# Entry
Amino acid sequence: MRIEIQIYLDEIRHQLQGWVGDRQPMIIDLIDEIQRDLGVVGDIAEIGVHHGLFLMLLAAVRQDHETIRAFDLFDRQDLNLDKSGQGSLEIFTAAIEKYYPGISESFIVKSEDSLNITPLNLKKYFPNNVRLFSIDGGHTRTHVINDLSVAQNVLSAGGVAILDDFFGPHWPEVTEGYFTFMNNNNRRLVPFLFFQNKLFLTTFSEHGNISNKFRALVEQRIGSEIHDGMWKYVNIAGHQVLSKA
# Structure
């Protein structure tokens, strides 16, 4: 495991408010290993930062010259209609300076409702493609459809989009928005993993290769656990997805 991820496990995750599954760092480490092996490049992005707990994890696998793009309402909580998270710009920027002082200039932080990001202005917000894209913003059906549409337009081939709170009982519109997007708007995203409340999707042409490589690395990392009945393949929106109960 990368030393930066170990630092995240030992220190950062205990200091910031938010929830990240205890084994999500392993998952991100494996995905990063696959992307490096395949030569996938691009920026890192998150819609819905809160205090930055998950984005700090994604930043741990940043490659040289990659920019980290963060979008949140932050102090404009009057626009947070579904109260899905209360971001704090002050806490987030302090976390950047504390945990990533050497690359703080690589963080581009915007106070923005993601519904303002449209196909007509994508380049304003995403001048480069993105290889890791976390979607944890507005938990309304409209926001999820919009944010997945943004992700599919800017994701690098072999990039991974990560949808938070999928199948979450308190946020049914996330799941509704996902299936609406897949049925009506999707052109290139395919799910390959459902793990600790997050659905992981990659690009259609690279799906088979990434899915197979991910399964092989999981077997190497956790061995026989993957055969204990808690892991299984399920069908989500017509696609085979590795799922962990």
Remarks:
- The beta strands are 43-47, 68-72, 107-111, 130-135, 155-164, 189-195, 198-203, 231-236, 239-244.
- Residues 177 and 183 are 10 Å apart (CA to CA).
- Helices lie at 3-10, 24-38, 53-59, 89-99, 122-125, 141-154, 172-184, 207-222.
- The chain has a mean pLDDT of 93.
